[in-house]
Amino acid sequence: MLNDYLGLNDIIETWAKNTPDKEAAVIEGKKITFSQLKCIAEKIATCLYSIGIRHKDRVGIIFPNSIMWYSCFWGIIRLGAIPVPFSPQLGEYEMIELFNTTGIRACFTCIEFRGNEHLKKIEKHLHNFIDLKMVIVDGLCNETNEIVPFSKFISRYSETMHDYKVDLLPDDPLMMVCTSGTTGKPKIIMVEHAGFLKSAQDMSNYLGFTHDEIMLLGMPLYHQGGFGMGLQSLIKGGKVIFQEKFTPEAFLSLISEEKVTVIQLSATLAKILLSVPDFESYDLSTLKMCYFAGELLPDELAAVFYDKLGKRVINLIGSSETASMQVWDSKTDREFPVNDFKPLPFTEVKVLNDHGNNCMIGEIGVINVFTDAILKKYYKNEQETNRRIKIIEGKKWFDTGDLGMVLPKNRVRFTGRQKRIIKRGSNLIYPEEIESFLLTHPDIEAIAVIGKEDKIIGEKTVAYIQLKDNAKINHGDLLKYCKGKLSTYKIPDRFVITVDIPKDIGKIQYKRIREYEDD
């Protein structure tokens, strides 16, 4: 059993020794055992060392969810280097900016992803990448001094096999997480090794995970939450399962085929699952827990899972900067609305007003949290680091930018994100509240609410709506559904029916929605 402090590398080491033939991960039908994962991680670490990668050097990863992503990640950290996972939807401009800002010295990449030709972009701009020395490609490619196929990389550089496992120090950076930020300038989060690991261990213990856990996640691995939530199962010697792309029928089939015990979802993905025509025909008997994160969860939707299906529901607030922060748990919290959160046993929460004072009951302020997993810093962004990280009563706290209302019994109601607030005339509108309400409509599959500039009222509210197959709703139907249930000023000024709301394995891409034209 793992003790209170072992490094992240020791997790694979421990379970490869104790349960070598047990599957650690299953992704798109490909499986890897703990001993196989340890073996490929050793080879990748050896090869990286052979080309000059050392402790704290940065190495990029551009893959969709795959065993290759998982293998490269563990190989990089085995060497004590820092993985920098990039979205496989990475654009050309973003690639140049992020490669140079992070200073990656090597990069593992797929050739292309859904028409996004990564290798061609890298070849085109190779001379612009200041620190990049080698690109390792999963697939056939024209080999050069700087570009090599993964198979050749492994065969060539692992000839003199040596275990270059590095014992990570508690304050070593574990990974660098790239986010788009709100100003167009990328925010790069430096995640600290020991804090991230302890948070995963604490959450795993809170949830009661065991070595028999089989966890199916609806998130991408390059999102820290996707890897981090999966780690909560892996720590105990359990198995994690991912899809490359979320498809509801395949997701439901995996639950029965793999005897899944825990699923991780967003509210949007949950609504899509329940919309599958023969949902009730799928065997969910092994499933004991539904783990929600990433979006506001409607009470009615949560109730379907804990009342009708009899599954434990966990609704979590977390972020790349903090890991897990607050929770609602159907096991203990059914008397409260599902978005009235309590601190976890290993976290602390303060809701502060504009003057930095604690809000009183009924007041809305900014949620600040103390966790072991608070980011080390925003890389090369001292201003943002100083703005968001605070020392309060001798502890390191993080200003989340999330808004919450203080409630009795040490609870906080999540009301929205500062950066998404819509200022409509004299009223402030929290889009999350409208999205949560509209998701209760039986014909709506996904919803995204944004503010658009208006010369008269400042901003108008626009709701982009993706309907279920064959559903038909018009503007009048939606107004009627909202009337009397939402305050008049909260009812969207426009409803836009769209074929598909852009999502990244369930997480709505608001940046892309803002690029839509107003027809």
Short description:
By secondary structure, this protein is α/β, with parallel strands linked by helices. The relative contact order is 0.08.
CATH topology of the largest domain: Rossmann fold
| Molecular shape | globular
What share of the residues does DSSP label as strand, in percent?
25-35%
Number of domains: 3
Average residue pLDDT = 91
Task: Give an overview in words.
The chain is α/β, with parallel strands linked by helices. The protein folds into 3 domains: 8-168, Rossmann fold (3-Layer(aba) Sandwich), CATH 3.40.50.980; 193-345 and 371-383, 3-Layer(aba) Sandwich (Rossmann fold), CATH 3.40.50; 421-513, ANL, C-terminal domain (GMP Synthetase, Chain A, domain 3, 2-Layer Sandwich). Helices cover 29% and strands 29% of the residues. It has 15 helices and 29 strands. The strands form 6 sheets. Strands 1, 2, 10, 11, 12, 13, 14, 15, 16, 17, 18, 20, 21 and 22 form a 14-stranded mixed sheet that branches. α14 links the parallel β26 and β27. The radius of gyration is 23 Å and the shape is globular. It starts with 7 loop residues before the first helix and ends in a 6-residue tail after the last helix. The model is unreliable at 1-5 (pLDDT under 50).
